[in-house]
C-alpha cells in the first residue's frame, strides 16, 4: 500500500501518467490538495481523474481544499492530510500550481515519511528526475569528523581496498567494515569487484561537496578568529 | 549583501517584482539557472532582465545552463553555482519550470545556508507565502524527550507562567528560563505580557504536530512488540 499526495491544475495527464507508471492499485490512497476555492478548470480535471480512476482501478481521489494564508497556517492544513497517510508517499511536483508543489515538497520532507518524488521535464523533453527519502537524508545528514575523514580518503583514492583504507585511517579492519556497511546503507559509498574495493557513489559526491563547503567555512571562520585551522 | 538564486521561464515579471520588493542592490548576486539548451522565450526573458537590471541598478544576472540528467548529476551542477554564494539566499519558487523550482528548493535546503523563499499565488490572488531557514530548521529538528514534554505541557496550558511550568516539570526556574530562551530562539515558543507567560507559536504548533505523529508511531510500534508504551 502506498499513498499519492499531489496537487492538480487544469490538466490531469501528468497525474494519470504517474498513477500508470507507478502501478497504482485500488487500495492505495490518492490525496489531491488544491487551492480554495476550486476553479472550474481544476474541477473538470478532478472529474476526469475520478472517471479514469474508476475505469482503470486506480484509487478513488480524495480532494481537499487548502485556504491560502501565511506559511504556518497553510502548512498546518496540508500536514493534517499528509501525516495520517500510509508510506511510502508518491508525488509528482510538476503538476498544477508551483506554490503548491513547493508546499507539498516541504510537507513531505518535514514529515520524515518514506517517499519517492518525480519531477518531469515540462519543456517537452522526456527527462524524469526522481529522488527519495534516502537521498535527502544522506544529503541533510551531519557527518561526524571521523566519517568526513574516511570519505575524504575514499574520494582521494577512489577504488581503495579495505585493507589499505584501514591502514591509512589507523583502524582495525573489523571496525572499518562495520563503518563501511553503515555508509553503504546511507548510499554514499559502494563496494565493487571481487576484491570489494570502496568507491564514492554519485550521491556521496554530492554529500562530499556539502561537507567540503562546511569545512571551508569553518576553516575560514577559524582563520578570521586568528586561530590555527585544522581540517578535522 | 545577498544572493538571488532563481530559474526563469518565458516571463521575467515575477523575478523583477522579487528584485524590487526585496530592494535588490547592484552589489548583490543574481544567479539564474535554466535548462540547457536555452529556448528562445527564455533567452528573451533573460535579455529583458539584463536591460531592466542595468536601468534599475539591480545586480547583473549570471546565467548558468543546467543539463538535465539523473537526480545526482543535475543536483551537482546546481550545487556548484549555489554553494559559493554569499548568504542569505533569496528565491521565488513560482518562476519558470516546476522541475527547476523543486531542484532549487532542495539545493537551498541541503546547502544549510540562510535563506528566504517566496511563493506567489499564480492563480491571480495576491497571496505571497514566505519562509526561511529558521522555520525549516525548527520543523526538521529532532527534539529531545525533555523538550517534547515541555512543549506538550505548554501546549496543554497555553499562557502558562514560568513559575507554574517549572513546578509541573520539576525543574528550577533558572534551568527552565534557559530552556525557554533556547526554544524562543528556535521560534517555537514566545513569551507575552508583563508576566512573561509562555505560549506556543504557529510554527511551534506545526513542530508539535510532527512530534505527536512521531510519538504515536513509536507508541504503536511498541504496542506491536507487546511492550508497555510510555509517551516519553
From TrEMBL, chains A, B:
Family annotation (Gene3D superfamilies): 3.40.50.11700, Winged helix-like DNA-binding domain superfamily/Winged helix DNA-binding domain (1.10.10.10)
Name of a matching Pfam family: HVO_A0114
Coiled-coil intervals, chain numbering: none
InterPro entries named among the record's database cross-references: Csa3, Csa3_N, WH-like_DNA-bd_sf, WH_DNA-bd_sf
Highest taxon, organism lineage: Archaea
Membrane-crossing segments per the record: none
Domain called Csa3 N-terminal: residue spans: 2-119
Name listed for the protein in its UniProt record: CRISPR-associated CARF protein Csa3
Organism: Sulfolobus tengchongensis
